[in-house]
Amino acid sequence: MKIAVCIKQVPTREWQPRLNDQKTWVREADVSYEMNEPDAYALEESLRLREKHGGEVVVCSAGPARVQTVIREALARGADRAIHVEHDSLGAADAFVIADALAVAMKDEQFDLVLTGLQSDDQGHGQTGVILAERLGIPSSTIIMEVQIEASSLRVKRELEGGWFQWIAMPLPALLTIQSGINQLRYATLKGIMAAKKKEIRKAPLPDGVQSSQQIVSLAVPTRSKQTQMIGGTPADVARELVKRLREEARAL
Amino acid sequence: MILVIAEQREGKLNRATWEAIAAAQQLAGGMPISVVVPGASTGNIAQELASASVAEVLIAENAVLEPYTPDGYAAACRTIIEPANPTFVLFAHTYQTRDFAPLLAARMRKPLITDVTGINGTGADATFTRPMFQGKLAAQVKPQGGPPALVTVQIGAFRADAVQKGGSAPTKKVDVQIDAAAIRQKPEAPFREAKQAVDLGQAERIVAVGRGIKSQENIPLVEKLAKAMGAEVAASRPICDNGWLPMERQIGSSGQTVAPKLYVALGISGAIQHLVGMKGSRTIVAINKDAEAPIFEVADYGIVGDLFEIAPAIIAELEKP
Question: The whole model's pTM is what?
Answer without folding.
Answer: 0.91
